[in-house]
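FIELD: query
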Amino acid sequence: MTIHTADDVSFLKMHGLGNDFVVLDTREHPFVVTPAMAQAIGDRHCGVGFDQLAVISASDDGATARLTFFNSDGSISGACGNATRCIARHLMTEDRTSEVVLTTERGQLFARDAGGGKTSVNMGLPQLDWQDVPLAKAVDTLELPIDGAPTATGMGNPHCTFFVDDAEMIDLEARGREIERHPLFPERTNVQFASVIGGNHLRMRVWERGVGVTLASGSSSCATAVAAARRGLTGRQVRIDLDGGRIDIEWRDDGVWMTGPTTHVFSGTFTRGWLEAIT
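FIELD: result
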């Protein structure tokens, strides 16, 4: 990476329901983010800290921008719903518009202003076949051959959702770490534990692959809503209480829509010396 001035690499710190991100806009000053750089920025003691790093780059397919996501361990994340909502809100404010189209590994995602300070994004259709999640072998994705009979769902990332009596009672650190690397998931998996607490109302806690316990996860919320509807536990429109707050999910014919608040916490600039030390 070539650094011309200390002002070349600025960033935004954002979060959606406590699911926090560093956002780099490389459209005017292109550079390559490496896994090692992502890890260094994600260090909460020696860097900035994040659950995911989101890189905005120019799009060549007619979309407003292209997004690439890194987990805090430097691995690539195929989708990040809360970061997509945060960046959509930022770009809508910047462009003075009420909707944007963002290209991700999932394809083009449509986002719009939902009013009341909330942003909606269509995260695309869920992937329900075993090979699309993906899983290591042909099994019924509705009830996996894992203790607890979880449901597998692809939302650009693989997800494994357990429905339990009380999500608060789960040792999320231990169970999440164990299931993330289960042999049935060749690309590892996000892990959710959810309880039905009312009509179309879920309580969910999440372990994200490559990150660990997080206060919220957009793609995990979408996957959990889809899994609950498939199992007849809820309808297709649900609200989910996460550790970081509430999000609304609706599984429609055109995809899974996610609506919730976003927060731009602060903007900053990486020092030249620190960037040179990590590249």
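FIELD: remark
The mean pLDDT is 95.
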